[in-house]
Amino acid sequence: MSNFIFNPRSVFSGKTEKETETNDYYTLAGQEDFIDDEGSAKKNKDGDKVFAKKSLRKDGSVKYTIRLSNSGKFYNPISIYGSENEITFLNRICRGNKKFKEVNEKTFAWYIKFLNTKNTSWLFNAERETE
Questions:
Q1: Is the Cβ–Cβ distance between 31 and 49 less than 8 Å?
Q2: Is the pTM of this model over 0.85?
Q3: What are the distances in angstroms from CA 24 to CA 11, 14, 15, 109, 127?
Q4: Is 48 within the bounds of a domain?
Q5: Alpha carbon distance 17, 3 (integer Å)
Q6: Which parts of the chain have pLDDT scores under 70?
Q7: DSSP strand E in 27-61: where?
Q8: Residue 65: which H helix or E strand, with range?
Q9: How many domains does the chain fold into?
Q10: Residue 7: inside a domain
């Protein structure tokens, strides 16, 4: 009988091939830490005011994600009705609005235009693209 002690780290290192190399965090115009060369409002780090993320993976692929509201639609930070901020037991406990949905590049570009211009027609176009 051997004296081998099982070490879970020897089986699974916890890192995946698609580990991200760099992240870009997008926010609403006026809430940015800086504006990039394309005119997009960005944050330096992830947080509550981040509404879209672009992740460049080590394998060269790009992942685009957009924040979802409690209702499952793309998050609208300028909603005048406050439907995204409705506080109920289910929304507070079960349906946090920290979820992000992976989307294609075209949908992501339209959502970024919405964040930069605050024109909701870009948001509607982005939502329509995912249907």
A1: yes
A2: no
A3: 32, 23, 20, 13, 21
A4: yes
A5: 32
A6: 1-20, 81-98
A7: 34-35, 41-43, 52-57
A8: strand 62-67
A9: 1
A10: no
